[in-house]
Amino acid sequence: EVKLVESGGDLVQPGGSLRLSCAASGFRVSNQNMEWVRQAPGKGVELVASIIGGGSLTQYATSVKGRFTIFRDNAVNTVYLQMSSLKPEDTAVYYCQRDQPGLAPFRGQGTQVTVSS
């Protein structure tokens, strides 16, 4: 069974840091396009970060570039999103997803990140 389980969301103060984890099962993240997206209340889904195929090429939304880092640990079949210098506008539910050309993205259940003082 293909599954993605996100964790690590929390309430954090502005300027703080969090690391989100996405544990995959049923496939290997090592050779897949993996992404983090987020959805804030009343807003659409925003693509935050991508790691491409079997390499280390990454892409980021302008809003998070320089603050967020996506990476994967193939040994534990997990994708991470390291977030720093968090802002209130980063508040959202964060989802991990596998992007396969020609198919709808497969997404986990999400984890809540709230940035507030």
How many DSSP helices? Answer: 0
Strand content: over 45%
Order of H and E elements: EEEEEEEEEEE
Derived from helix and strand composition plus strand pairing, the structural class reads mainly beta
Average pLDDT reading: 96
Q: What value does the Rg take, in angstroms?
A: 13 Å
Give helix % range: under 10%
The major β-sheet equals: 7 strands, mixed
Uncertain runs are none
Distance between the termini: 40 Å
Shape: globular
- How many β strands by DSSP? 11
Compile the SSE list and pairings.
Blueprint (H helix, E strand, L loop, with lengths): L2 E5 L3 E2 L5 E8 L7 E7 L5 E7 L6 E3 L7 E6 L4 E6 L8 E8 L6 E2 L3 E5 L2
Parallel strand pairs: 2-11
Antiparallel strand pairs: 1-3, 3-8, 4-5, 4-9, 5-6, 7-8, 9-10, 9-11
Question: What would you note in describing this structure?
Answer:
There is one protein chain. The chain is built from no helices and eleven strands. The chain has strands spanning 3-7, 11-12, 18-25, 33-39, 45-51, 58-60, 68-73, 78-83, 92-99, 106-107, 111-115. It is globular.
Quick description:
Helix content is 0%, strand content 50%. By secondary structure, it is an all-beta fold. The strands form two sheets. Strands 2, 4, 5, 6, 9, 10 and 11 form a seven-stranded mixed sheet that branches.
Features of the shown structure:
single chain, 117 residues, mainly beta, seven-stranded mixed beta sheet, four-stranded antiparallel beta sheet, 0% helix, globular
